[in-house]
Structures
1.
Amino acid sequence: MPNNLTIIDNRTGKKYEVPIEHDTIKAMDLRQIKVKDDDFGMMTYDPAFMNTASVKSKITFIDGDKGILRYRGYPIEQLSENCTSFLEVAYLLLHGELPNRTDLDDWRQNIKLHTYVHENIKKLMEAFRYDAHPMGMFISTISALSTFYPEAKDILNPDVQRKQIFRLIGKVPTIAAFAYRHSKGMPYIYPENELTYAGNFLNMMFKIGEAKYKINPILEHALTVLFILHADHEQNCSTNTMRGIGSSHIDPYSACAGAAAALWGPLHGGANEAVLHMLDEIGSADKVPAVVKDVKEGKRKLMGFGHRVYKNYDPRAQVIKKLAYEVFEVTGKNPKLDLALELERIALEDDYFVKRKLYPNVDFYSGLIYQAMGFPMDFFPVLFAIPRTAGWLAQWQEHLSDPDQKIARPRQIFLGYGERNWVPVDKRK
Ligand code: ACO
């Protein structure tokens, strides 16, 4: 079977053979298609990258129709069931293989060496208003790290790259917890490096007066699973931002800050916060039909539903739904669970959702767990950004080592004025 595409330009009658690789044609191969020699040549128009692959990647695989998610080939269900530490999965994303015992110990040790932040970071965070949104604090502080580690600019040096990866994965939980403590007016708790990644984070968040904060093992496990589920998701909006900013060869702190800003939006990682606001607003199960009616009339969206890639149940949502019951055994049931289940039941039976293949996504149930665990709603996007940092860094590293990549710079279809002459201010209409 020939592995190419024949294109006939009906404007000129000319025929072109374009090679196919991985079921894809190169957009640049269309540039030869012209009517006149001095034409720019054919481009594709694909707002929001609906059907454009911008990278070749070996990190995360998604089959949205079948509801499959794998990191480096391993199904998300197996990783979330069996990995006892988030750092094991972070290693997998960044190195391509699961670590053996020695590699895992070294990796953990390297990350633990970088969990503390410079005292000036603490002062910087203290400057935020008491009611500053924790995600705003998180983004600004990650960005500020670039000024503490100016050597990070040497992005193509593998040792420098590795060091910033240790620093970022090590420090994001500390910065996140400091943002929370700041908003509560509580003293910051320094990292305790003998704890697990999730355990240390819970300790920095919730320790108050006790000499030794007792971490509930079920909640620690639940947070580890949530971190694993959120660690990467191939070319989503924030990862594309990480790669796009990183393609200018800026340091990874600046790129991560940009990625985190993209994550914050309510159509992306901010959706879990939006889901709880929506459930609060709906209030009771008897209001669900009216809400679904509004959604169908285009008056509102059902937050936590729908996905650009998944046209089936989001496999992360399946794991989270199960996890929710384990967490509620400890914390007591989140009263919004029944409402969420009713909303899901009605939506999944409704033709509008069935026809559009709209299923609950990762954000539909994650917020219910986070809230039951005592995290405030505005902290949810920060909880997403902590593990996703590992994914952003894996994608950034892959991007920098990919010889196909250059600075990201899309084309446009210009539809504005042609050339026109400047008019003095008094003569303008
Ligand atoms: N509620 C109601 N209708 C929806 C929803 C929703 N949540 N999502 C999509 N639709 C409808 C659209 O109106 C559209 O209908 P139409 O064909 O009649 O115009 C159709 O389904 C297709 O939707 P698009 O907006 O074209 O899908 P897209 O891939 O651009 O958007 C997105 C995906 C942004 C996730 C969207 O589903 C959405 O806004 N969901 C709610 C926010 C959310 O939960 N975001 C979290 C995503 S997961 C994550 O980022 C971690």
Note: The chain has a mean pLDDT of 96.
2.
Amino acid sequence: MANPHANAVAQLERVAKLLAKDYQDNKASFERAIKKLKEPDVVHQTKLSIKMDDGTTKKFQAFRSQHNNARGPYKGGIRYHSDVSLEEVKALSTWMTWKCAVTGIPYGGGKGGIIVDPKKLSKAELQRLSRAYTDFLSDKIGPWIDVPAPDVNTTGEIMAWMVDQYQKNLTKKGLVQENPLGTFTGKPLGLGGSQGRDEATGLGGVMVLDKLAEKLGYKNKKKVRIAIQGFGNVGYWFAKHAHDHGYTVVAVSGSRGGVYVANGLNPEKTLACKEKNGDLTSCFCTDKACAVGNGKKISNDEVLELDVDILVPAALENVIHKGNAAKVRAKAIIEMANGPITPEADEILAKNGVILVPDVLANSGGVTVSYFEWVQNLQGYYWTHQEVISKLKPLMETSFAEMWAMKEKHQVDGRMATYLTAVKRVVDAMILRGI
Ligand code: NAD
């Protein structure tokens, strides 16, 4: 598998080449800023020792990468997955810096991860692992330092355990003035979470989809066919809101494959089926009473190659690479996962005229509502669901409009257009600080 951090650096180098002419009077500072942005400010790593239910002790490698905080505290999720690596968290934290900059929210970028398959842990083991990770991070995070959140395989419940452990650690150190609720986002509603956080990433993506459909001249949403790889938090909410907005979702897939329904599937019923059966691969049927929709089983690779209008990778990174990019038949890709397309694949897709809405813009609804959650925690004043959604919409639409204007002005692809805006904002903040 390609090195995701090398991909992130390659992207930054492409952007820096185009941006350099804006900094001719300040060349040395610009070059120092770009050099610094190629590596995180700091990566914390350790091996966590966890007592397993059978009395044995197991060690799990854990990371927290803090990429850049020129625009505000580090911000980013915590991923539990067996494929987590140092290079992955470094890349993900870099992309968080761009994402927060492109949406204009006052954060830098961070990311954490533990190499673990959480499905192999009992709930008690998972809780012990999450608390041990919080012990490791307690003096490295805080509402004005670094604000973690959920990512792949981490949940609101895990954030609640982390808040609790963090608060205990603060109390031990006599640091009770710190705001434990403002240190983690993606928390459950009953513990300082925000209305709308669960659905925010997927819904934000659909807000972008609406604007993209306008640009592409798609007048009849029903005729816009969408395939989604990944049916977790992001994939499900994207599918549900796209369906509710009138689009036709023809395929969704999970780690073991998925389901294709030519006339469009019902995401809520598909989720109910997934929850009942444990995966999606049997969530199709061929009889008239079919709830999900008449369809067939489909592999993860096939989902990416379907003849659809919009393809939505919403699972893991590097799934579209030089080996399969030419097989993508979608007219546009909305990157809801982080880093799903390699730089080589980017070039192939651009040559083939595939329009791209990059991850840092498309999936920024999540971090934007995380920011709203943090603001509410700091104020101790909570907004209604309606207020949250109505604050999210203009931010997503503005980010998309800025990307499209930049794309047309510089005649570059969507990723380059978005990165130009984001990297410039971060470099400017670093220069303002006198780097
Ligand atoms: P999740 O754990 O809820 O869901 C992940 C999905 O990916 C599941 O459907 C899983 O079955 C599928 N999957 C796992 N391994 C796979 C494989 N090898 N091939 C295909 N599918 C596979 O995670 P999520 O929160 O939905 O995150 C998905 C992506 O979106 C990640 O890249 C994450 O970084 C990104 N993201 C998430 C948020 C958020 O708010 N949750 C915000 C921004 C970006």
Note: The first strand starts at residue 42 and ends at 51.
